[in-house]
Amino acid sequence: MAKDLGRNEWLRAARVALLKSGVSEVRVERLARDLRVSKGSFYWHFKDRQDLLENLLRDWEKDFPQIMSQVKGKRGREAFQLLLRLVVEQAPLGQKGIVPSDAAMFTWASVSPKVRRRINRAEKKRIELLKRIIGDSERSEILYLVWLGFVARGQRVPTSRRRFPQIARSMLKLFLPARSRRQHRARKARSKRTQNRR
After folding, report:
1. What pLDDT does 183 receive?
2. Nearest-5° angle of CA 53, CA 56, CA 59?
3. The pTM is what?
């Protein structure tokens, strides 16, 4: 019976505990109680608590590159639009523990130098990946800072998370170079003229 509870259920419970209560509450006893199973179930999937914590961190480190792999081959507005759509879809999943949560990881990094170093390395890679899409270091970093602000505010004011789709649309307008927006409008106008001729 214990074997039937999957690794993903344990990870999901651990992500929720990390987000809501911090790393000190990511304990096998507490997770087993939340999942209403014996602790024995945990050891089918993880060696110990440290193994679980390492998995939480590693999954978070892989998360953004996996999102970016879906944007591969696209550039400019199309890439940025897709990226924002993927982030909008993923944001609520982080609150439910289905995927890693930036808010939980950043809070953890604030109390652990080891985790902080890994988060900092991963963030550097994130900004580099954003730069490839946007094509501009400053815009990429500003965009990332906007995301951090959204994450931090979402922790303090959970209802603000509902506004993220609207914020994402505003970011699309703000962060794409004006030339890209003009090109998009010009393409749209050409397409409309072509349709009118038919």
Report:
1. 59
2. 145
3. 0.80
